[in-house]
Structures are given as C-alpha cells and as structure tokens.
Protein: SDR family oxidoreductase
Amino acid sequence: MTRNVLIAGAGPGVSGSLARLYAAEGGSVGLLGADEDVLTQLRSDLEAAGAVAGSAVVDLTDDAATRHAVTRMGEQRGHLDVVHFNPSAYREKDPLSLTPDELLEDVRLGVGALLSVVQAARPFMGPGGRITVTGSMAADSPWFGAASLGVQKAGVQNLVHSIDAALAGDGIRAVSVTVRGLLKKDGPFAPDNVARALRAAIEQDEADWRAEIPYTG
Structure:
C-alpha cells in the first residue's frame, strides 16, 4: 500500500531508517528536521531510490513554524496516512543541576512539539490514519544523569494514550513503541530493526489496539 508519510524530527538514526523503509514500499515521504545537511542527504537517498520526498528545516519548538511546515507538507500531498514523531532532547544533567527552565525547554521539544505536529496534521488525516512515536525505556527506567530525557519519554508516552483516545472515534490511531534497549550500530537495537518495529505497529488490529508497544529486540 502506497502511503503519504510525514516524519517530524528526521535524522540519520531510527527516523532515517523508517523513512527509507516507507520509501522502499513506494511511499511519499516528507521530512521535518533541524539539520539541513542531514535532511538534504536523507532526501537525496530517498530520491535516488525512486521515492517522492520533500524536506523542510524547522525548529519543532516553534509552534507557528512547525504548524506551517506540516500544513505545507499536507497540502503538497493532499492527505497524510502516517505521521511519525521522533525528536527528544538529550541533556546530561542530573536532578540536582537541571534547572526548571532547562527541563521545560527539553519537554517543549520531546513532548510539546507532538501537539503542534498532530494538530496541524489532523485536517489531512482520515480513517486509517496512523500516528507513531519513538518511545524509550527511559520513560519508566530513567538514568538520573540525563533526568530530562526520562521526563520527556514518560510525558510523550502518556500523551500518545490521550491522542489515541481522542482520535479513535475517527478511525485514526496513535501508538508509541518503547525501545527497551540501547540503540547500537548492529544487532536487535540497530536503527533498521527499531524502524521495522515502528512500521509493524501501524498494522495492529484496531479491535485489539495498543497505544504503547514494547520493543525488546
């Protein structure tokens, strides 16, 4: 099935692997991210593989800019079948050195930006639409040395449950895939394998839908 896919927080890791996976299926992929060089390279890779791809540099913590970029991607494609949310902020500070402002800044990216993306994408999504999020074991097993990451992952996991409940009546479902392991270049937690788990999550039977799925490799 050919899909129009939007990936927010696109980069060279899991999100890049997911973009290539959907492109290999013939999907049209829109990329939103902060690093122009990374986006250019990823878009070039997708186009070289014969896929239709678009990209836009955007600061996802900027609500107005994010909504504009998502709307533009939706208008270009006519509709969106899959929206994937990937970003998080990694700040190596423990709870005794992390400031409230730093925590809020990180949560603005790792959690709050999901609202900007989903609300802007909603007019372009219909029954069968899917929203996926890259989750992490940091949600319930945080490392104190990067305290804000655990807060972000717990928050976004919780928010996905609310988004799924709010949209289920319209036939649109949301799911976070909790990666229970450290990302590595090779092995079960290589980006390509995590991307496959995210891709598989949208094929759930709606009657037994789960808004959070653990990936244990």
Notes: The chain has a mean pLDDT of 96.
